[in-house]
Structures are given as structure tokens and as C-alpha cells.
Amino acid sequence: MSQATPQGVEASMPQQAEGCLGASDLPTLKATNGGKKKAEGSAKTKSPKVSTASAARLVIQRVETAILVIDAGPPEQQVSIGAGLVVYVCFLKEASVGTVAELVDLLFRADLLCLPNEDGSANRKVCLAQFPQDVDLLVVPQASLAGRLKANALQFHSLAPKPEAQELYRRFIEDLRAKAQAEAARVPGRKLRVEAGVYGNLQRLTFSSPGPFTTCIEI
Amino acid sequence: MSQATPQGVEASMPQQAEGCLGASDLPTLKATNGGKKKAEGSAKTKSPKVSTASAARLVIQRVETAILVIDAGPPEQQVSIGAGLVVYVCFLKEASVGTVAELVDLLFRADLLCLPNEDGSANRKVCLAQFPQDVDLLVVPQASLAGRLKANALQFHSLAPKPEAQELYRRFIEDLRAKAQAEAARVPGRKLRVEAGVYGNLQRLTFSSPGPFTTCIEI
Fold this sequence. Notes:
- The structure is a homodimer.
- Chain A is of the alpha+beta class.
- Helix content of chain A is about 15%, strand content about 30%.
- Chain A is built from two helices and twelve strands.
- Chain A is globular.
- Chains A, B: This is D-aminoacyl-tRNA deacylase.
């Protein structure tokens, strides 16, 4: 069964000067497991070595509008979207370029949106690639998603180191925009817009949701 | 390592007439595993039988303000909070009265809030029970959190049946309010307020967050 129990994290997150683990106040994690390195090959087992660690965590919310003000800066530092999805993303230690590709694919093929049926009786689920109307995405870097509760503290051992996570985030946005451009062209006149928060900056989020609808995806 | 992979769910959620799995458009799930009952005792194993299923899922977001309009109804159907936490909650099949007690305890003891240090250098994490200022909670029933992606569809096999989930939700709010009242009294003048959405109703959510800060907890 699916589990997201607070395992695999052993120490607290370093305290943050800029804002209590907000959108992107990402820590520079110290290497904490150097002394715990397993003696490889010292104990052979029958089962193959399979990593069960996760590579990324998403929380997705459907919204009608959302505004992200980065560093409470001037208007050009503000991004906003209309109807669509807010996608909070966090890269974990297992993340790679493949994770980015998987996330982009997932966001376009998963039935995360909905449309009323013609007879009004129900809604049908639709993926981003096949959604017939304009739809916007707002991506928010969200290190706090790596948090796992141990005793009373949220701990962040699974979080990818900042340089790697920052590069993966940059690539994620780039690939998401390329995919959106390609997919938008399949439905004449439809717009697929990708807006994004800035990795490592504090940002104020406001949104309005008709539902709300919140879902978590871990890969 | 912690995992929330889309396992353990085998069929799609029934389509919803009222709003695409919004805050509380909860399905009445059919019993789908009647034919798959394990032949108990037919194969003894050395390891004890331990359930690894989850009982509840929370997504928690720090907010400055949040407004929940239930069924787009009259003003008395609107609840709003100031600075505090929005807590989206979903009860799964393994949920019991004990789950409610565990969730209430967890929300008050986990270091989910933060305060600037006196020298302004950093923030320190604080739990609800020890937070020295007023703090509000807005609880939103959120069946969509049970969703696990299989192929392209979110599936909801782990969701608790509606009557049980509704009763657990009612109890959760009641116990949370009782705990808030008891805890508030420990700090003279401090207010701990619990507002809540209505289980099974569509509700429109608007919030503003300074961070944002989003975390997932599964028990």
C-alpha cells in the first residue's frame, strides 16, 4: 500500500533566515550520513539492491486564478494565471534528468482536469494534453514538501542538494514550456501557459479555487 | 524511504456530478474487493501480519488569510481565518477513532508554525500548542487526497466509505475544537480558532500565503 510515513529522515532541517521553509527558502544541507556509510559487499543477500527512494514530490491544486509575487518585488516580479493548476514541486535526492522528463510527461497525461459532460450529469476527467480549452500552470518550487515528521519536527534528509535541485527545477520549467508549446499547437487557438516561481526566492501566493481539489503525487 | 507511489488502487473513481472531486464531493464507493478476499491461514509465513495501509492523509499550508465559501451560499455559509494553517484532510479505509485522536495530537505537537528569532537571524519552528500568538486553523475535507495515479487516472480505492469518513470528519472537528479550547487556556489571551468546511459540500477556497509552505503528512 502507498505510504508516506516519516521514515528515512533523521535530523532536523537547518533553520532558515529568510522565511520558515516557504516556497523556496531552500537549505544548503550538510552531508549528514558520511559516517554511516554501509560497508558495501560485507553482507551479501539474495535480494537485488533496489532503491525505493522517491525522486520528486508534487502537490497539485486546481485553481481559477493564482498570483505569485516573488520577493514582494515590483510588478515584473509577479506572475499570475487563470484557470488551471498550481503545481508545487520538490526534488529529492534520487532525482535526475529522467525525473524531470517523467514529471513533464505525467503532468500532461494524467487526468487532473475536469469538464462537465454535455448533459450536465457529471464531470469527466481530462488530461492537460487533451483539455480543449485554455489552461494555465503555475509551478511553485516547494522544498517544504520534502518534510517528513519525526517526533515533533519536520525533517528534510531526502531533499536534493540545492545546486542539483535548482538545475532540475530550471530544466523542469524549460521542458514544461517546450511541451506546452508543442501540445498547444494540437488544438487550434488553445493556449497552454506555464508560469513559474523563482527557485530560492521567497514568494507570496494567493489563489482562488472552485473546489478545492488537492492531490499529491510522488515518483 | 517514505513512499507515496500510486500503488494499492485498482479502479477509477466514479464520476462526480457535483464538481470533479472538489473539497468534499465524496463518492459512495462500491465494494470492489469482495472477490479478492485472501484465504486466511492457507499459507503461513514467519513474519507477523502487519497492516501497512494508511489511515489518513493531510496536506497543510501556512496562510495569512483564507476564506471558504460553502456551496457558494449566503454569508453565514462562509468561514474565514487569519494567520494560521489550512488543513486538508482525507480519511482512508484504515481510519478509526484512534486515527482522529492521532491527527489532533499531531496537529498540536508538530512544529508546523514558525516565529522569527529575537535577533532576526532565523526562524524557529513552533508547534500549535506552544505558539505564543493567536493562530487559526481552517479544516477542509478533501477526498481528492486519496487519489493515486494509475496509468493516467487518479484512483481512489483507499478512500474510506462515506458514512464512516463523514463521522470521522465530524469527530475530528469536534475534538480539534475541544483541544484548541484547552490549549488556548494555557497562554492567557491567546486565541486558537478552528473553522471547518462542511463534509460533502462543494466549497470555494481563497487563500493568501506569505511563503507558501506546503507539507504532506500521512499516518
